[in-house]
Design brief:
By secondary structure, this protein is mostly helical. The protein is built from seven helices and two strands, in the order βαααβαααα. The protein has one domain. The protein has a two-stranded antiparallel ribbon with strand order 1-2. Helix 1 packs antiparallel against helix 7, helix 4 packs antiparallel against helix 5 and helix 6 packs antiparallel against helix 7. The chain is elongated and about 60 Å long.
């Protein structure tokens, strides 16, 4: 399969943006009150599917050398992508290959949340556990993405990739806070903290949305840098 690098990157950015927007929308109380619990849950399911599509495309991008490091002309030239590769020493690939199963777990948890009248044990097994494990994988993927830029605690505020990586890390922290707060207590059948569960998802999704939007100018900057490099004597 052959794809234009710029098309692949733009697709990844928009898929992540749409998925994040669905999670933002699903976490807004007026929306929940307006559409009801079932439609709100469906909104999360749709968002998780967009997340998974974006994560798969990003994995393909990370393991296809022709999809990155291109100049102005090269970004519009179709090149072959690799659907399977093993690059354990590439931190960008490690981030992508860790992120994808995390999104798949969110598919499971959001779909399971559509089931009504589930017992506390069923909620724990089918909804909370996949959500917790998915949030854990998002944290690990975010750490790999930061390490791909250099030291973990490096400070590069003018770097768009650095901003994107840390926005994703902060978003992953919020998602984890939401997952922990949404645990259903066996004794009461209630979540540990509903406001934190909803707010964590909302704030995390906002971080992911901004990070995804920044992928577009970050790509433009990388293409411009590649052009300058090729023109240097």
């Amino acid at each position: 399969m052959r794809v234009k690098p710029v098309v692949l990157n733009t697709s990844i950015a928009w898929l992540f943006m749409i998925g994040s927007a669905c999670f933002v929308l699903g976490s807004v109380p007026p929306y929940i009150d307006a559409v009801g619990g079932t439609i709100d849950s469906v909104t999360y399911v749709v968002g998780s599917l967009f997340f998974t599509s974006a994560a798969f495309a990003q994995l393909v991008q990370s393991q296809s050398p022709a999809m990155t490091g291109v100049d102005e002309q090269g970004q519009h030239v179709k090149a072959r992508v690799r659907f399977w590769a093993r690059l354990p020493h590439d931190r960008n690939w490690l981030a992508a290959v860790t992120q994808l199963p995390g999104t798949l777990l969110f598919n499971v948890s959001t779909l399971a949340a559509l089931v009504h009248n589930a017992t506390v044990q069923q909620e724990d097994r089918r909804v909370w556990r996949p959500d917790f494990y998915g949030s854990t994988l998002f944290l690990i993927a975010s750490a790999f993405a930061i390490l791909a830029l250099g030291r973990f605690l490096s400070y590069q505020p003018r770097s768009l990739p650095w901003r994107i990586a840390w926005l994703n890390m902060v978003g992953s922290v919020f998602f984890m806070a939401s997952a922990l707060a949404s645990y259903v207590l066996p004794g009461t059948g209630e979540m540990i903290d509903v406001p934190v569960a909803v707010g964590g998802t909302l704030l995390g999704a906002v971080c992911f949305l901004i990070g995804a939007a920044l992928m577009l100018p970050a790509w433009t900057a990388s293409v411009a840098a590649a052009l300058v490099t090729t023109q240097d004597p």
